[in-house]
Write a structure and sequence with these properties.
The chain is of the alpha/beta class. The protein is built from 15 helices and 23 strands. The radius of gyration is 28 Å and the shape is elongated. Bound molecules: adenosine-5'-diphosphate and magnesium ion (MG). Adenosine-5'-diphosphate (ADP) binds near residues 164, 172, 470, 487 and 488.
Length: about 500
């Protein structure tokens, strides 16, 4: 085996149990939270340990095992004591004769441990085009050059949550994942971008991807070369799309339902114009609905004509937008909707419209046996509690909670980005099978994250609190343990991918 820092003994196991081993630090090594250690019987039989805590203590000399000091030794017995660091570490992986698994035995007491190195994880490498890059294995704050990639279909259809406080790198992580998805071209992604930060209108963004021309569709109200204009025809909007976004009273719901039944897809127009219907509906009810529609859609009536304050919703254009977006998604493209000029409700409504259409189409594809010919689709939502909180889901639920619960069967998933996990109902959280946890200084949020994770993360509270920008813990039914990862800055990914192209250009010149 090779030499180098990694092979140096940094500690020895002095006690503990199957969940938490106690390791005494040796050779002045300073070990960190989330650092990965290896206790090795032989190069083909070793256990990986992850540090979850540490404390000061006193140790007897290096040579004498601690158990040699029994409780009743006399004060004058010459025992050499020294200050030492003790670490709590969980056995997370065992590699034995080519097989990889959750450790069923713990390393022998007094075993020496060393730092984990790249070669310890080489068996995990998987570079199929169906995988999605999350980041590199992290050992404490040290990054090992091993990619963490997860099978895209599993990952996306079983939903992903990315919880973290602001500024910890959520958007960066999503950009990096989407870059990898654009490489693969096998997954449809719908991204509602309320900050217009993903495409890269100015600065770095997904538009720089070598396949952006074929695989990326950018919709905006403020067009740039190559973009599509974001206009949704009013006829695409169904009453259900408002669920979880706008709340209506029973009387209002009834009125909407009557208008929808009478005027079909022209119901909004009829409502805004206050057209008469056979059944009696109070004028006040109609006026309240009109006001709500104006606030959310910017739609109103003037001189018998439908007008729109923003250019997003329209009575006469945008008739193919929805169909086009759906077609892009089905064929494995990434669709970014720049909703930065819309209000919250308008953005969520567009999301509902597209998500609703995709979900019902995919459900039909499943029925007709065509589902396997369509790319799995995932919908990225920022500030997920806007539509997934207890309050927003209420009794009847909305399209997002439906997707969280049933989407897997139809290859439709969610990537829910959130600062708050505690407000999302447990039934939703338990359906989200991968959590990419970034830093979080709020204890209540950490608790909610830990309680909803797939693996037992009860000993990870300190780790999560101390994660730096880009550092994460991936807890997933598709990873064997809660893997510490580091997601590089997007810029670096762009630059490293561009190198071969620049080189070619250089040759031509
Ligand atoms: N892996 C990383 N390494 C270094 N800086 C990062 C990393 N991820 C994000 N940043 C920087 O941190 C800032 C916030 O990142 P961002 O992804 O916007 O966070 P969030 O979406 O969680 O608010 C940005 O300036 C970004 O460039
Ligand atoms: Mg962000």
């Amino acid at each position: 085996m090779g030499t180098g820092q990694g092979q140096k003994t940094v500690g020895r196991i002095v006690g503990g149990d199957s969940v938490s081993l106690e390791i005494e630090g040796l050779n002045e090594a300073t070990l960190e939270l989330d650092e990965l250690l290896v206790s090795e019987n032989s190069p083909s039989d070793y256990t990986v340990l992850k540090i979850n805590g540490m404390r000061y203590g006193t140790s007897v000399s290096n040579e004498i095992p601690v158990k040699a000091v029994d409780a009743d030794h006399k004060a004058d017995t010459p025992v050499r004591e020294r200050d030492a660091m003790f670490y709590m570490a969980r056995p997370v992986l065992r590699y034995n004769d080519g097989r990889l698994g959750i450790p069923k035995v713990i390393p022998a007491i007094w075993s020496q441990v060393r730092r984990a190195e790249k070669h310890d994880f080489e068996f995990l490498t998987n570079a199929s085009p169906d995988t999605i890059f999350i980041g590199k294995i992290r050992s404490g704050s040290r990054v090992l050059d091993i990619d963490i990639r997860l099978n895209g279909r599993d990952l996306l259809t079983h939903h992903v949550m990315i919880p973290a406080t602001t500024g910890r790198g959520k958007s960066n992580l999503v950009k990096v994942m989407l870059w990898s998805i654009l490489n693969s071209g096998r997954f449809g992604i719908l991204l509602l971008d309320s900050h217009d930060e993903y495409y890269g209108r100015t600065g770095h963004g997904l538009r720089e991807h070598p396949y952006a021309g074929e695989r990326l569709a950018y919709y905006s109200t403020d067009s740039v070369p190559g973009s599509y204009s974001l206009v949704i025809n009013l006829e695409s909007i169904e009453p259900d799309h408002f669920e979880g976004i706008l709340s209506f009273t029973e009387a209002q719901k009834q009125a909407i339902s009557l208008y929808h039944r009478t005027f079909r897809e022209k119901w909004i127009e009829a409502m805004v114009k206050g057209k008469e219907i056979r059944e009696s509906v109070s004028d006040i009810t109609i006026r309240v609905i009109q006001r709500k529609l104006r606030r959310v859609l910017g739609i109103y009536e003037e001189g018998g004509k439908i007008r729109c304050e923003n250019s997003v919703f329209s009575a006469d254009s945008g008739t193919t937008t929805l169909r086009d977006i759906v077609r892009f998604l089905e064929s494995g493209k990434t669709v970014i909707l720049d909703t930065s000029r819309l209000g919250d409700d308008g953005e969520l409504l567009i999301g509902s419209i597209v998500a609703g259409r995709i979900f019902s189409l995919y459900r039909n594809y499943k029925g007709s046996g065509e589902l396997d010919t369509k790319a799995p689709v995932s919908i990225v939502i920022e500030e997920a509690p806007r539509i997934l909180s207890e309050e927003k889901i209420a009794e009847e639920g909305n399209i997002y909670s439906t997707i969280a619960r049933e989407g897997r069967k139809f290859n439709v998933g969610l990537i829910a980005i959130t600062q708050l996990t505690s407000v999302i109902p447990r039934t939703i959280l338990s359906n989200i099978n991968t959590k990419i946890i970034l830093g979080n200084e709020m204890a209540i949020e950490r608790e909610a994250i830990i309680n909803s994770a797939v693996q037992d993360l009860s000993d990870q509270d300190r780790s999560i609190a101390s994660l730096d920008k880009g550092e994460a813990i991936v807890s997933s039914i598709f990873t064997r343990f809660a893997v510490p990862v580091y997601t590089p800055e997007f810029q670096q990914i762009v630059e490293s991918s561009e190198k071969p192209m620049k080189h070619q250009e250089g040759l031509i010149m």
